[in-house]
C-alpha cells in the first residue's frame, strides 16, 4: 500500500520533474514558434447520400499520415493535429460504397467536410460480435473526447450526462452515481465486463478508475435489467479500458492541495498481435481550511485528513486465435487516503486502503463463411482487499474492518444478423461466483454465493414510407443465491428514424438486490441490520424519447428529450422505528421526470452545450405527501461553452445542483448552487512528438457548497497537465 511519507516523497519528485519538463519544452519551442507553422484540423459529418441521415461508425482515414477516426452516432468526426497541406481522404462504412476525395488543410485552421455515402449491396463474409450493445438513449464518450475533457476519473466523465447526479467526497475522495433519483447501489458499473460494485455495499466508486486508462465509457439511463441483470435497476455505466495499441505517451500533473501525478503508456506490435501497458501514480496532501458547519458554526478549522496516494497499472493484448480474436486486459489499483466520516462531524483519523487486481480474457469468433453468426466467450475475475479504520471517531465506537472479496465470472453469447426483416438476434448465459470475508458483517452473513443469469434479444426492422422502423425485445432471468429466488426482467422498444430525426418508445423493468451490508452488518448503538429486506424493483418503466441531429457546411447540432415514469417498489432507505432505532427498510416511491439536452456548433470553432434533468422521486404515502427522497435534487443542469482555434482550446462549464432535503420531511431544505470550471489548453508539434498542456480551475469562484449538508469542500482548485505523445509516420 502507499503511505503518506511515500506520497509526499513522490510528490516532491513529481514537482521537480514537472519543472524540468516545462523548462525543456520551453527552450525547445522558442525557435519553433518563430516559424509560425501550426497544425490544422479536419471536421465534418458523414451522411447517407439518399436521405441525408447521419452515419455513425464510418471509418475516415488519411493514408499519407496513417491517421484514422470513426464517426460518432451523429455522423460527426474530428481529426486534429494535421500539418498544413493537401491530403487524400478515404471513407468506408458497411453497406455503403467507399468514398475518396482530397482536402486542403490550412495553417492553424479547421476545415469542414461533409461526406455523402451511397448505399450498396455487399456480401457479408462474417460478423464481428459485440457482447455489450448500447441501446437507444445511451451516451457514449470515446477516447478523443475523454482527452479533450481533461477529466481525471471515470466519475468526472459521467457527471455531465443527463439524469446523473454525482456524489463526491471532496477532491481525491470517493465518487458514486445516482441515476434518476436512485441509490448508488442501484447503478451497475462494469469495467471490461467485470462488476466494479462492492460485494458488501453494492456501491461502485468511480474515483478508483483513472480517465487516462479508459478507451470508451457509456452511460445507459433507465431500467436495464433485461440486458444486464442485478443492480441495473436505474442504469448502467460501461467502461472499456485502453485497448492494445502501438505508440508512446507520457504525462506530468501538478496542482493545488499538493496534487501531483505521473503517467506513461506504451505499446508495440508484431504482425497482427499488439501489446500495450501503462502506469499512473497520483497523490495530494489535501489540507485546507473550512468553517466547521457553514451557517451554524463558522469557526475555521483545518482538514488534514484529505490526503491521497494512488497507483494504477494496466496491460492489454490482442491477437488472432482459432479464426477469431483474443483480447486480454489486466488492471491493478491501490490507494491509501483519508476519508471524511460524517459531513457534519468530519473525523480527523478515518482512513481507507484499497488493493484490487482485475483481469478479463475474451475470444470472439465466427461460425463459418456466410453463416451470419458469431460467438463470444469471456472469463473475468477480481481480487480485492478493502480496509476501513478510525481509532478516534467524533462519535460512536472505533472501528478497524477489513473486507476480502474474490470473484470470477464466465460468460458465453451467440449473436447473429438475420435476413429480411430480422436484423439481429442472440442469447447468452453468465455465471458469477463470489467469496466474501468482511469484518463488518455479522456471523450469519454468507461467505460464498453463485448467481446465474440467462438472456436473449431480438431486433426486427423494415423501411416504411421513408422511415426506418425497428422493434427490440429483450428478456432475462436471474437467480439470486442469497434470496434464493428468480427474477424475470423484460425490455421492449420501438424506434423510428427518418433523416436526422429519431423517435423511440420503450417499456423496461429492473431490480437491485439488497446488499450484504444492509442485511448482515454488525449491530451497533441505535442501529440494527435487516435480513428480511426485499429487493428494490422497477416493475414497469415507460420512456419516450426524441432526438434530432443535423449539420451544414459550417454548422451542426443535436437536440434530445426523454420523459419517463417508473415507480420503485421497495426502495431501500434508512428510517427509524418507534424506538428510534435506525435500520434499512423497504418503502414504495413514486418517480417520474425528464431529461433534455442540446449541442450546437455555430462555426468559428465555437461549441455550445447544455442539459436539464428533472427527477421527481417522492415517498408513496397516504394522502398528498410530496416529500422528495433525501439528497435527491429534483432539478439539475449543466451548460458549457467551448472554443477551438488552431492549437488552442478554451472551455467554461457550469453545473447546477437543485434543492435537497437531508431527511424524510420537507424541513431544513438545502439551497441550490452552481459550480464552475475553467479550462485552457494548447497543442503543438515538435519533431515526431505531439505536445499538449492544459490549465484547469475547478470551482472557479471558490464555491464551497456540497451535495451533502456540512460536507467540507476545499473551494477553488487549479491543475496543470503536460502530455507528450510520439507520432509514427
Provide an overview of this structure.
7% of the residues lie in helices and 57% in strands. It has 729 residues and is mainly beta. The chain has a single domain, classed as Beta Barrel (Maltoporin, Chain A), CATH 2.40.170. The chain has a 22-stranded antiparallel beta barrel. It is globular.
Characterize the quaternary organization of these chains: single chain
**What's the number of structural domains?**
1
C-alpha geometry: globular
Would you count the extended β strands for me?
A: 41
CATH superfamily: TonB-dependent receptor, beta-barrel domain
Q: What is the C-alpha radius of gyration, as a whole number of Å? A: 26 Å
CATH topology grouping: Maltoporin, Chain A
Total helical segments: 5
Q: How much helix, percentage-wise, in residues?
A: under 10%
Beta-strand residue percentage:
over 45%
State the separation between the terminal residues, measured CA to CA. 41 Å
For the largest beta-sheet, the strand count, sense and barrel status come to: 22 strands, antiparallel, barrel
Q: What structural category characterises the helix and strand content? A: mainly beta
Q: List unreliable stretches of 5+ residues.
A: 1-38, 122-135
At the first level of CATH, what is the class? Mainly Beta
